[in-house]
Each structure stands twice: as structure tokens, then as C-alpha cells.
Write a structure and sequence with these properties.
Layout: H1 2-47, H2 68-71, E1 75-85, E2 88-102, E3 107-112, H3 120-134, E4 141-148, E5 155-156, H4 162-171, E6 181-183, E7 186-187, E8 193-194, H5 199-208, E9 213-217, E10 222-234, E11 237-248, H6 249-255, E12 261-265, H7 268-276
Parallel strand pairs: 3-4, 6-9, 9-12
Antiparallel strand pairs: 1-2, 1-5, 2-4, 7-8, 10-11
């Protein structure tokens, strides 16, 4: 009888130790996943750190008449960005219209409704990169950009709009069609494209927006997703954990029935060749 009690107590102690180990494992796993997500969010926020104020003004402090009648014909396209609300990331398509007119090298931006996105610096960089590609001195032109966001949201990703804005400026001088494509990538004045965050979220926004092609920075076809995985610790005892998994964006979209062609570009020239080759 005494031995039976000892065995029972030992079994209870072992079970409690196992339960504690399982809880500790799950807790550590959740903490690691949470920290990974926070790192991604921080990366996206840092992309928008150059200008923290909302932009709805011109660079010289004057107002802008954003009516289409006042400016004339526009190049139309979509900026794909990432909205972060309550620590959740969601891809968002933002319609824009851009015009290039002879002038004094000024940049005018109008945004409606109120969104948090840095476009001033991106547009200045896009102007420089486009000018070098075209071999044109764009300091003798004014650039007008009108943003039409679907709703008032908190957005990150101003710099990642750089490549698309550069393509829009180029399309004002060359015959390239950007109306049905999505593009993301930061760009420097020499036309080199740099990595950005939120690639998967942006891809899904492109799909929902009906885009046919998605151009991303070189090497960013590999993305990380987070999945719920059941793990059997011992027979009859299963826990659910969240684990990161690297996926190929192209295969992921195909496997889920999404019709979106994904291309990588490391320079402005490569992006233009992709568009011209379509």
C-alpha cells in the first residue's frame, strides 16, 4: 500500500514537471515569435522615420490646387503600402496621380484623407533617379502628386514607394504602362533598388486590387509567415504553438490560387525592362 502511494505521488510530480515544461516551452516560443514580429514592425517604422509629420503641403510652404482641371493630365497608378493598426499589418493600395510640367523644380503633394506616409523624400529621390535614367535635367520641371487613400489609416512605408514614383515620372516621358502593376522598393538617386518590409502583405493587397504583376527588390521573394502548429509532447497531450516558416512568395501565391506574377529588380532599369517586356 505504501509503495502504491509512493508511485502515485511520483507520477503526480512527474506530470506536474511535464506540464510546467510544456507551459515553459510554449511561453518561450510565443515570446520569440512576438519579438520577431516586433522586429518586423520596427523595421517598417524605421522606413518612415525621415519625415514624421503628415504631408499635405508643397515644399515651398505654399498651398496646392489639387483639382485635375488645374494641373492637367496625370499619370495614374497605385502605391502599395502597409497599414499597422493594433499591431496588425495589412497591405493597402493607395491610388495616386502624378504630373510633370515645365517649371522651377518644385514638388507639390496633396493627400486626402489624412494618412501617415513619408512621400516628400521618396519623391525627391525618385525625381533624381528618373532624371539620370532619362538624361533630362528635371530641375526645370515641377512635379505634382495627388494621393487618394481609400480611408484614413496609419501607414508605414513612405520610402518603399520610391521605385513606383520613379517609374511614374519616367512614364511621363517614355511609353511605359504602370496602370495595372504593383511595385515596392526604396530607391536612391542612382536608380538602385533597396529592400523593404511587408512583402507578403503587399502582395495580397495587389491580388485584391486586381494587379497582374508585382515588382519587388532583388532577393525578397523569400518571405516569412507564421503558422499554428500542433505538437504532441507525450501521448494524449498536444499543444498549439506559432512557428515562423520561410516560404517562396511565388509558390505561395500559386498554391493559394492567386493570379499574380512576381518579379525581382535591383535597379530602375531592370524594373522598366520587366514592364516593357509584359
Amino acid at each position: 500500500m505504501k509503495d502504491a502511494k509512493v508511485i502515485l505521488l511520483t507520477s503526480i510530480v512527474v506530470l506536474l514537471i511535464l506540464l510546467y515544461a510544456v507551459q515553459s516551452y510554449e511561453y518561450i516560443n510565443l515570446i520569440n515569435t512576438y519579438n520577431t514580429v516586433l522586429d518586423e514592425l520596427q523595421r517598417l517604422r524605421e522606413e518612415n522615420n525621415i519625415l514624421k509629420t503628415m504631408i499635405s503641403r508643397s515644399v515651398d510652404g505654399g498651398g496646392i490646387n489639387n483639382s485635375l482641371e488645374a494641373i492637367g493630365e496625370f499619370i495614374e497608378g497605385n502605391i502599395v503600402a502597409v497599414s499597422i493598426e493594433n499591431e496588425n499589418m495589412e497591405g493597402v493600395l493607395i491610388k495616386f496621380k502624378l504630373a510633370v510640367r515645365p517649371g522651377e523644380g518644385k514638388i507639390f503633394i496633396a493627400i486626402s484623407p489624412h494618412v501617415g506616409v513619408d512621400l516628400q523624400t521618396s519623391l525627391e529621390m525618385a525625381r533624381d533617379a528618373a532624371g539620370k535614367y532619362l538624361g533630362i535635367n528635371l530641375s526645370t520641371y515641377d512635379i505634382y502628386l495627388v494621393i487618394e487613400a481609400p480611408r484614413e489609416v496609419g501607414l508605414v512605408d513612405g520610402p518603399s514607394a520610391g521605385l513606383m514614383l520613379t517609374l511614374a515620372i519616367v512614364s511621363a516621358f517614355e511609353d511605359i504602362d504602370i496602370s495595372n502593376i504593383c511595385v515596392t522598393g526604396a530607391i536612391d538617386s542612382n536608380g538602385y533598388v533597396y529592400p523593404v518590409g511587408g512583402i507578403l502583405e503587399k502582395a495580397l493587397a495587389c491580388v485584391n486590387g486586381g494587379a497582374e504583376k508585382f515588382i519587388i527588390p532583388k532577393g525578397q521573394s523569400k518571405v516569412v509567415v507564421y503558422e499554428r502548429v500542433e505538437k504532441t509532447i507525450f501521448p494524449g497531450f498536444t499543444v498549439v504553438v506559432i512557428e515562423p516558416r520561410e516560404i517562396d512568395l511565388k509558390k505561395y501565391l500559386e498554391e493559394n490560387g492567386y493570379q499574380l506574377e512576381v518579379y525581382e529588380a535591383s535597379t530602375l532599369e531592370e524594373a522598366i525592362e520587366i514592364i516593357k517586356g509584359s
